[in-house]
Amino acid sequence: MTRPRSTARRAIPAAGLLAIAAFLAWRVPVGLLASVARFVEAGRAVHDGPGEALARQRGPEYAAAVAGIRERLPVDATYVLVSVPGGADMIVRFDLAPRRAVFGGSLRELGAALASGGGRDLPAWTVLADLEPPGPRLVATRDLAARRVER
Amino acid sequence: MNPGAPLAAGLGGVLLFLAAGLGLVELLPALRARPFAARLGWAYLLGVASVPGIVYVLGVAFDVRVRRGVVLAPALVLALAGLVARARRGARLANAPVPPPVGRRAARVAGVITAVLAAGLFAEAATTREMGWDAEMTWSVAARWVRADRSVTPRALTDAGSYVNHPQYPLLLPLAQVAVLETFDAPDDARAIKPLYAAFYAALLLVLFDVARRHAGTAAASLATLALALAPYLLTEKSGGASGAYSDVPLGALWGAGLVLLAGRTTASGGAAAGVLLAAAVLAKNEGLPFAAAALAAGILGVLLDQRERRSRLRSVAVAAVFVLAAAAVLHAWKARIPQRWDEDYAHRLGKVSLAAEAASRLPLLPRAVASETSAWKHWDGLWIAAGIALVAGAKGLRRRIVPPLALAVGASFALYVAALLLSTWGGVEQVPSTWNRLLLQMSVPLGLLLALALREGLRSRGPAFAILAGRPGVEPLLTLRGARRAFPRESLVFLAFLVLTCAATWPWIAHLKDHCSDRGDPYFTSWVLWWDFHQTFHDPLHLFDGNIFFPCKYSLAFSEHDWGLALPMFPLFALGLRPLTAHGVLTLLGFAFSGYGAFRLGRTLTGSLPAAWVAGVFFAFVPYRFGQLPHLVYLSAGWIPILLEALVLFARARTPRRAAWLGVAFFLNGVSVIHWLVLTLIPLALTAVVLAFRERAERDVRGWARGAAAVLAAGIALLPFLLPYRNAALAYGFKRSADEALEFSATPADWLNADPRSHVWRDFGAFPTPPERPLFPGLLLLALPLAAVLLSRPVRPEAQEPAGPAPPPRGPGPARSRGCPPGR
User: Fold this and answer.
1) Which of B466, B614, B761 sits opposite A30 (nearest CB)?
2) Chain A CB contacts of B145 below 8 Å
3) Lowest-pLDDT range, B420-434, B677-691, B763-777?
4) Which of B17, B354, B359, B721 gives a 20 to 30 Å CA spacing to B706?
């Protein structure tokens, strides 16, 4: 009677090894395959310039829109950044950095504030963040107030 | 701009920190005697800790501007100081101790695999700019502001009107980014700074391997490190893993390295290294300060538990505490200049909310959320499940002095995490999916070390436990009552192991075994065959082949495989009322396991090596194209082929009557199970017998070979009742396979590159040919392992084959003789 118990008890530590071995048996080929895929992908992207790399990540429209805003806004400029659901404003803020953003709230809030005569100390330019085509847009802050008033 | 510039800057940045860190390592006796690869890991962490750390301190204390000279000066000073120290000490270094050879091969294999993974990660990092959400929101945008203003207090952070998330987030990693870009005059390009993060992956693993090797041995360290290296969340996740630019992997490496230094026995120089690393953790991430405090507490616990080296350890903790306190002071001074906004203020919340009320509402939801993330296949592929099993199974190995300090630090960090969830304004458990896995990464060094210690226990028990699994090669013990009784537990455990692997590989079939099958074609037919074998054997065995289908045709069982040998083990279960489809499912799973067990036996007998046997078994059982045969029970059940070959090998080595009998039995069981395998093994078996006869120099042993031939002949005669009905059916109904049919089902060379679509891993690899039996791609490992064997194995030295001392007494022929024989024997 003691022998089977002893056998099982002695085999318990090996169960841990078996579990890790099963994990490795599954993951080693998958991991190596993923590495091969990464090399292949890297080979395709290695000659990309910064604009092409951004276009590869976010799409050509977004890359073109960001490049356009960068040209119009000096590096040390500030701008109003309108927040949008989904957080595209944070991505756009990164791509426009080191230009500094001032929080504008939502487009509705910003327009309302401007229409009521507020926001006089806001930067002249506002960026409407969008990750989808046509990408972020640069508009004159005062135009947002005018649009709101027109409505 | 030169497209290669980001790649050059990324690589150069890694080398910059490495050079500075190697210099620092040379100045620290606790680290400089370690193996070169380990020193690289420590050096990288120390380099990132020291160079940006010094820039940070200079910027906060003296408003020194962040520019190339300020970055290069500390890096060069440290590198030169290390070179000078090494040159002065050069001769003594040559006598550095060489690690023991035990487990070196495992380390080499783990090292090669990890190097491939790290290289892939680095290639991706240097060529793609995707960094993960938080990286763009917090750290990398801060780096751009710092670089533009050349200050650790840029206007974007100090101007309360600027829109900044987490403005008070510590700047060490953004400063490391700036250091790379400034040093190499690179533009603001994510691809130039991502290699900096990818290198943390390698550094973390090197440090883990180094400390685990010291505490748990090389083999256990290799397994634990490789397991962590392959964790999907660490390897591929952009939002937190090494594939992005979050600060979690850096924090995990810096904090983990400092912690394991303090938790083990170390000197004042080890304390200094731990202090630098923990100080860097403080300056790298918000949770770094409390984590560092937990590490210091762990160090103090180590002091209390260590009677023998209490003073030396106390000194090391004190030295580390100085660095941590200095970093905390710098961080406090820096934060004082940054207006807080757009961030969670936990300290403020602490005074506002009732912790007890939050705990009552949030804590009950926490275990489920945490368990769900920890076991999420897409994040971890079962790593923590396997690690949990290993930790429980190897709990005895955790009775080490280093474990209580590690447990304290990890436990305190987990408690801190829970407290943060309770105080969070974002709803508590809703934060778990985006934070828990990152916390596990931050804890990865101590958790990896604990795993290695547990695995060490499993490896230590190789004596008793593995002897059970490995045992002596050969089947001879099974042919005597006493031998069979002894061998049964070990053989059962091996078979059980393959069964467990089968259940995992075919999951979730085992959970639906009762009434599921792979498709509605062959499995239904085969289920009938199995049941008919059982029914007719006990009702009218002389008319076994006159099935109750295709009436009034005779021999209808001979219209396909009769499967009688496969059905035989199911007879008791049929008698108990098992349904035919369930029996078919059971036999399908057993077919995988038995194939693995058979190949395991053959590998064990041929090489005398347990690892080789397991590799052979696993590959033979789970080779990708086997999954394409799920509906074909007969093709899945290939276990008798390797067992028959093993019987032939054993017989060739010693042509005894007992082994001849076993050869005959194996031949019969192979033939009575699957006629395809009987036919297809005849020629290879005959050729193998000829080769073995000459290899064993037994070609002149006519009497011995006649004994074997007689056994096979007897088995062939015993098979006649199962074969003649096929001849009768062919004659009666004119059944004949045409050459075109044979060609249609024969594989072409291209089919070896076509994977079966049922494989999760290889489903899109190659085309799916028709007929669907033909995809034969065997997987990458089956091709890579022989290459690894050629590259990594070393010839066995003659002196290693025999122990020193008097020659052992001569042993008679038998299975024990082949134990430990060189491969191919």
Assistant:
1) B761
2) 97-98, 100
3) B763-777
4) B721
Q: B616-630, pLDDT tens digit by residue?
A: 999 999 888 888 888
Is the pLDDT score of B700 beyond 70? yes
- Helix residue ranges, H only, B424-558: 432-442, 444-460, 467-470, 481-505, 522-539
Contacts of A106 in chain B (CB under 8 A): none
A125 within domain boundaries: yes
Please give, rounded to a whole number of angstroms, the shortest distance from the CA of B635 to a CA of chain A: 23
β partners of residue A79: A101
CA distances from B112 to B38, B39, B487, B616 (A): 15, 18, 37, 21
Res A119: pLDDT: 75
Residue in A100, A102, A125 to test binding to B, most B beta-carbons within 10 Å: A100
Alpha helices, DSSP H only, in B506-630? 522-539, 564-567, 571-575, 580-607, 610-622, 624-627
Residues B623, B680, single domain; the answer is yes
Mean pLDDT for all residues in chain A: 85
Sort out which chain A residues have CB atoms less than 8 A from B389's CB and list them: 15-16, 19
Same-domain pairing of A132 and A82: yes
Q: What is the ipTM of this complex?
A: 0.92
Residue of B nearest to A50 (CA): B189
Same domain, A38 and A9: yes
- The pLDDT score that the predictor gives to residue B205 is 97
Tokens of B260: 């394991």
Contact A7 B489 (CB under 8 A): yes
A31 part of a folded domain: yes
Residues A138, A91 within the same domain:
yes
| Mean pLDDT in residue range B400-413 | 94
Is A42's Cβ below 8 Å from some Cβ in B?
A: yes
Q: Does residue A22 carry a pLDDT above 90?
A: no
Q: CB contact, 8 Å: A67 with chain B?
A: no
Burial B345-369, CB ≥16 within 10 A → b, else e: eeeebeeeeeeeebbeebeeebeeb
pLDDT at B672 over 90: yes
**Contact yes or no for A17 and B761 at CB 8 A:** no
Residues spanned by the domain of A4: 1-47
Which residue type does B480 have?
T
Contacts of B240 (CB under 8 A, 6+ apart): B132, B233, B246, B248, B249, B437, B438, B441
Q: What is the pLDDT of residues B130-139, one digit of tens each?
A: 888 889 999 9
Q: Are residues B221 and B137 in the same domain?
A: yes
In a domain, B813, yes or no: no
- pLDDT value at position B92? 53
Is B566 found in the same domain as B501?
A: yes
Determine the average pLDDT of the residues in B585-605: 94
A140 touches chain B (CB under 8 A): no
Residues A11 and A69 in one domain: no
Same domain? For B371 and B486 the reply is: no
Q: Would you say B393 and B458 are in contact if contact means Cβ atoms under 8 Å apart?
A: yes
Q: Cβ–Cβ of A22/B159 closer than 8 Å?
A: no
Report the amino acid identity of residue B548.
Answer: N
Q: Is the pLDDT of residue B822 over 70?
A: no
Where is average pLDDT lowest: A27-31, B406-410, B527-531?
A27-31
The domain tally of chain A equals 2
pLDDT band at B484 (very low <50, low <70, confident <90, very high): low
* Cβ-Cβ contacts under 8 Å, A28 against chain B: 113, 226, 230, 781
Residue owning tokens 């074909």? B632
Q: Considering the domain boundaries, does residue B469 fall inside one? A: no
In chain B, the number of structural domains is: 2
| Same domain (yes/no): B449, B492 | no
Clarify whether residues A63 and A26 are in a common domain: no
Residue A52 covered by a domain:
no
Who wins on pLDDT, A5 or B756? B756
Residue A1 touches partner B, C-beta closer than 8 Å: no
Within 8 A of B121 by CB-CB distance, chain A residues are 35, 38
Task: Kindly determine whether residue A17 and residue B779, on different chains, have CB atoms separated by under 8 Å.
Answer: no
Answer whether residue B517 is part of any domain. Answer: yes
Look up the domain containing B448 and give its range.
5-90+102-454
